[in-house]
Amino acid sequence: MKQINIGGVPEHFNLAWHLTLQDDLYKKEGVDLSWHDFPSGTGAMCNALKEKKIDVAVILTEGIIKAIIDGNQSKIIQTYVQTPLNWGVHVSNNSLYKEVSDLKGTKAAISRYGSGSHLMSYINAKNHDWDLKNDLKFEVINDLDGAVAALTSAKADYFLWEKFMTKPLVDKVVFRRIGNCPSPWPCFVIAARKDIIESCTPELKTILKVINQATIQFKSIPNIDTIIANTYDQQLEDVREWLSLTEWSQELITEDTLKSAQQQLFDLKIISKTVTCSTLVHEL
């Protein structure tokens, strides 16, 4: 039985993977799928793909596009979540900053360079007409715990992260959310290393078949809102709102979406060039 290592963030978006793994659905189809959590997010997963520590990643669209253009030998094999990611703009509860416009020229906490929190800081800056060269500064904090430490100690001033995952910190009056910054593209895709695509196409097709069946049925799982709330320390009303806003995908990302995302990343000088869609995507 072929072993495939897959990585993703420990967030509610990925509960379908854990449920299918608990039920041994991949093993029943002849694939030994092993899940690896990446609390640091997309930047860490890009490195893990590059270093062949994982074979597949459930990863932010903007992060893997940049990584592939920068030389990461991977390709997108499917969209995972079709809807945008709702990034909250957070400050310490003790902060004097009241509005996103107050943050111009201050320091953003980012999990690492090339991560979603890094790249979306540029989108946020663009949305508020900031000077991308002079008004953006960064402090690397690795993960959510690092962000709490950095904002509390004033080593950084603000932090962009998925607003529902950070809601418990807002409820506990650790963070204060002063704005939102939705991603302007489908938020999560599934990417695989090129060598794995070449050598394990049947296994990858099986993985997609199983997870796609799971995501189609995900919202109809009995008490799924309670399961998510208990698993991820969320309030039930927040989970229900998140479920109402989130749509999974079972399709390959479209050429128009890739062109639009690349153009926006290029305009922000996050990527140095745009590439053909075939460079970014492989249809199994």
UniProtKB/TrEMBL annotation:
InterPro entries: Ca3427-like_PBP2 (IPR054364). It comes from Snuella lapsa. Its main location: periplasm. Belongs to the bacterial solute-binding protein SsuA/TauA family. Residues 97-180 form the Ca3427-like PBP domain. The keyword Phosphoprotein does not apply. Keywords: Signal. This is Substrate-binding domain-containing protein. It comes from the Bacteria. It is found in: Periplasm. CDD domains: PBP2_Ca3427_like (cd13637).
